[in-house]
């Protein structure tokens, strides 16, 4: 497919998503099935265009003074791809499979309009109803923070220290262009361009043998800040597919008792294969069966309870830009209730002197600091471990991390703008 034909296909897909209100990933998959002539490079390029439009949906429409699939695409090419008007016009020449030529109004908009007087939610590309929440989190920096949250994410890998080391993986994966992550001592990073194909990590020999896992650096750091130790009894209360469970197992060096569970047994389905591949032998996966509590035999004996809390996922917008436009105000209220439930459950499992590591992939204060303050009011026998005391796990990076991340009395907030990671909040609570 020519670049112009790819552009036309992406515009068509945006129209499908608008009309049918389907998730972007589903629309892309169905388009690929219906257009089997499109090669892997074509599909990657079309997906890149679509995701970039979703990242810059509001600002692109503003630039063009029109909110249509074509207008958003043209605005994105200027804002995100940095193409000038002539370059965009060359793609839209009206030829076979190409978009129609630019109108005079489109040329004028591309040449003269800017984001200088755009409202914060437009310049930052997020739903207007979230503006007060992001203003509470970042103040006047919210546009800069949200713009970084709309950027493309790299592909991060975590080295499984049960089997190997980062020093050994760097040359082994050199063909993928890996580099050490800036903060995590066990992370590797692959920078991806706009039209980059999936590097096929799951087909790599090192992945098949369990030496590496795909995990954002922020998620790696969140697990590290929990300071799980060999010999402890650790519970991963919202284990899901097991990303942080695997990280905890490596931190524990296979020693101690690790229990993984989740209220939704469907989320746990991939964890068994992942644990086996990673060489984890000290993890007990507990799948919900009926109304009985899967942890009824455990009461106030855990050294560490890790909560990868259900949340709005605002910190992961780089990887799922579709999600921010599909998010509704009611979703926040539901998640806040879920977080209260899981925090109170964790409190009953934690022994005296034990700790809870509360983690969200959200930047919203209601899910982070406010949730922790409410928990402490309900459970006065817990106290926040001062954030500056939790970063020792980063060794020589601790001081630089403390300067980069946002610190509050309740914990750390990582953001794409500040730490180059997804948005993660981490609070460690200790029982007296």
Considering the chains and any ligands shown, give keywords for the structure:
four-stranded antiparallel sheet; alpha/beta; 432 residues; single chain
Chain-wise SSE layout:
Layout: H1 3-20, H2 24-34, H3 40-55, H4 57-64, H5 69-79, H6 85-91, H7 104-112, H8 120-123, H9 131-138, H10 142-149, E1 155-159, H11 166-172, E2 179-180, E3 187-190, H12 205-208, E4 212-214, H13 217-225, E5 233-236, H14 243-251, E6 257-261, H15 271-278, E7 283-286, E8 302-308, H16 321-326, H17 329-349, E9 350-360, H18 369-378, E10 382-384, H19 398-404, E11 406-408, E12 411-414, H20 416-419, E13 424-431
Parallel strand pairs: 5-6, 5-8, 6-7, 8-9
Antiparallel strand pairs: 1-3, 1-4, 2-3, 9-13, 10-13, 11-12, 12-13
Helix pairs in contact: 1-2, 1-3, 3-5, 4-5, 13-14
Residue runs with pLDDT of under 50 for 5 or more positions? none
Mean pLDDT score: 94
**Spatial extent as radius of gyration:** 23 Å
Major β-sheet annotation? 9 strands, mixed
Q: Count of DSSP E strands?
A: 13
Strand content: 5-15%
Q: Quote the distance from N terminus to C terminus.
A: 64 Å
Helix content: 40-55%
Count of discrete alpha- or pi-helical segments spanning 4 or more residues: 20
Q: SS-based structural class?
A: alpha/beta
Described by the principal axes of the CA atoms, the overall outline is globular
């Amino acid at each position: 497919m020519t670049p112009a034909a790819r552009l036309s296909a992406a515009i068509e897909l945006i129209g499908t998503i608008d009309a049918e209100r389907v998730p972007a990933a589903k629309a892309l998959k169905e388009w690929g099935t219906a257009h089997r002539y499109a090669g892997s490079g074509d599909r990657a390029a079309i997906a890149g265009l679509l995701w970039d439009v979703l990242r810059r949906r509001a600002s692109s429409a503003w630039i063009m003074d029109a909110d249509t699939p074509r207008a958003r695409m043209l605005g994105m090419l200027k804002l995100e791809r940095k193409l000038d008007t002539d370059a965009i016009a060359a793609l839209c020449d009206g030829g076979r499979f190409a978009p129609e030529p630019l109108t005079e109004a489109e040329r004028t908009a591309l040449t003269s309009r800017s984001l200088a007087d755009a409202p914060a939610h437009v310049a930052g590309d997020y739903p207007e109803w979230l503006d007060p929440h992001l203003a509470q989190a970042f103040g006047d920096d919210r546009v800069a923070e949200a713009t970084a949250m709309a950027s493309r994410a790299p592909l991060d890998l975590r080295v499984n220290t049960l089997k190997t080391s980062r020093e050994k993986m760097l040359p082994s994966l050199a063909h993928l262009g890996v580099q050490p992550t800036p903060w995590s001592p066990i992370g590797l990073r692959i920078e991806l361009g706009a039209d980059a194909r999936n590097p096929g990590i799951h087909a790599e020999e090192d992945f098949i043998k369990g030496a590496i896992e795909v995990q954002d650096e922020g998620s790696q750091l969140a697990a590290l800040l929990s300071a799980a130790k060999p010999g402890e009894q650790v519970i991963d209360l919202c284990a899901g597919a097991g990303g942080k469970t695997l990280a905890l197992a490596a931190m524990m060096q296979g020693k101690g008792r690790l229990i993984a569970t989740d209220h939704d047994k469907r989320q746990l389905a991939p964890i068994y294969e992942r644990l086996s591949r990673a060489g984890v032998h000290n993890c007990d996966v507990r799948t919900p069966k009926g109304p009985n509590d899967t942890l009824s035999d455990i009461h106030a004996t855990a050294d560490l309870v890790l909560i990868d809390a259900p949340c709005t996922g605002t910190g992961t917008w780089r990887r799922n830009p579709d999600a921010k436009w599909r998010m509704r105000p009611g979703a926040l209220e539901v998640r806040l209730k879920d977080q209260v439930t899981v925090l109170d459950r964790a409190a009953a499992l934690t022994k005296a002197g034990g700790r809870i590591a509360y983690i969200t992939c959200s930047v919203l204060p209601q899910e982070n600091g406010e949730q922790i303050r409410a928990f402490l009011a309900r459970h006065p026998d817990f106290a926040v471990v001062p954030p500056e005391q939790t970063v020792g796990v980063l060794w020589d990076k601790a001081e630089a991390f403390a300067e980069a991340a946002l610190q509050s009395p309740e914990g750390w907030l990582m953001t794409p703008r500040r730490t180059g990671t997804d948005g993660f909040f981490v609070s460690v609570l200790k029982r007296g």
